[in-house]
Amino acid sequence: PWLAAHCTMEQMKWFLTQEVSGEAGFDDLTALTQVKLPVRPKLELARNYWDEMGRGNPQAMHGPLLETLAAYLELRPTMETTVTESLALANTMAGLAANRRYAYQSVGALGVIEMTGPGRSAATSAALKRLGVKAGDRHYFALHAILDVKHSLAWNAEAIRPLVESDSGIATAIAEGALMRLECGARCFERYRNELGL
What we know:
This protein has helices at residues 2-5, 9-21, 26-33, 39-52, 62-72, 84-98, 103-130, 139-166, 170-196. It is mostly helical and 198 residues long. The two termini are 12 Å apart. The model has no long low-confidence stretch (mean pLDDT 95).
């Protein structure tokens, strides 16, 4: 909310540099996570992946939309300018998705992103609008403020619920992944607040 109402453009650029650096690619994470999942959860992850891929339209792919904003704002993310917490978040997400042993943790972590994304994206989009960034350049965040509400509901109903119904023990792994992602996000925001003097 502070971003939406108060940040300067310089502060927004710093924040977005951290976010871009820590972006592990939801499309790729989803693709890795769905390997060998049961049919119903696999299909939900496939639907989500297809949305991330712009439903086949290169101009609507979510990754390039974020790259468009980064280019417009002339962001230059590097390892040296990225806070440790942002890198740890990206590494955690990549590690869960890339290791079959943690597939269910990845389902939980990705589900939390969909659940928490709308509010975070809406605040970021509002800040960008307030700072004069035109709609086409802030489309990534405006889109996720709306689309992730639908994604979260579908992820819960079509991925998490069937997995837990098939084996209640899977709930623990899903919860572990969700908590890992929430903890990584909380650490990022704590560091961001410190860096921004809040």
